[in-house]
Amino acid sequence: MSAALGHTSVLLKEAVDALGIVADGVYVDGTFGRGGHSRAILARLGPAGRLIAFDRDPLAIAAGEAINDARFTLVHQPFSLIAETLDRLGVPCVDGVLLDIGVSSPQLDDAARGMSFRFDAPLDMRMDTSRGLTAADWLATAELGRITEVIRDYGEERFAHAIAKALVAAREGQPVATTRQLAEIVEKTVRTREPGQHPATRTFQALRIFINQELEELSLVLPHCVDRLKPGGRLVVISFHSLEDRIVKRFMRDASRPPRLPSRLPLRASEIPAPEMRLLGKAVRPSPDEVAVNPRARSAVMRVAERMGG
After folding, report:
1. d(CA 153, CA 159)
2. pLDDT tens, 162-185?
3. What's the whole-model pTM score?
4. Which residues, 6+ apart, have CB-to-CB distance to 219 below 8 Å?
5. Nearest residue to 207 (alpha-carbon basis) of 265, 257, 140
6. Is residue 113 in a domain?
7. Using CA atoms, how far apart are residues 257 and 113, in angstroms rounded to an integer?
8. Which stretch of DSSP H or E encloses residue 58?
């Protein structure tokens, strides 16, 4: 494990090992964060190697300025724009892509970001604070049915409708503009608590995922990653909750199967197209020792697939 600027990278060695780094290879770190994975990748690259990292968070981009390395390029873009960015940089294909999905510890621990009910702060929740609606902006005008859908679908919250009704009722008196307001409204509405979990946990998760379009971004980027991988190149994805992992698991599973063909199409076995990817090993989870040091690692799941062909 390695900490960089207050952030501990999860499954650091396992993820970098899984990339199978070659010294002169070209790699993508889709979520720079505070650079733990990026620094570990750079340490294994030779002089001709290259690393291109993405992040939506302006503070992460600022942190990346500390890396003074000609082999390193940091881009202030969501990773869903990987294809366009690689084209702009003149990089047709890469040897590996690492995606460490979800919110980072600095984002959760910075009260001003409005992502946690542990602090009273403006209800922002944006990963990229330079653009887009805040959670408060959205809650001010969203319809009851849409709020219900978001909390239910992205938070897997069984009291979604009751929470949405309470939010709509509350905003008639004053805007729901702070994390404390949101947490208190949910706490008063959710009567059944899960052991060890704040009643607002699922609602905060749902709004953050929705505001940042996290699942949509993930669904968009996965096929682009495969398209840009060289034969033998690796896709390594670390996710932190079931919604993300479900998308990754299904995508890798489907990409590792031969394409579906009409059942009566007369083809020899040699003529059946090969799968795009092959799965490498089983899902990897943090060791008990890592979880003891970094409890936020406990829900992490890493999956790895390799591009076929060549």
Report:
1. 11
2. 999 999 999 999 999 999 999 999
3. 0.90
4. 247, 251
5. 140
6. no
7. 41
8. helix 58-64
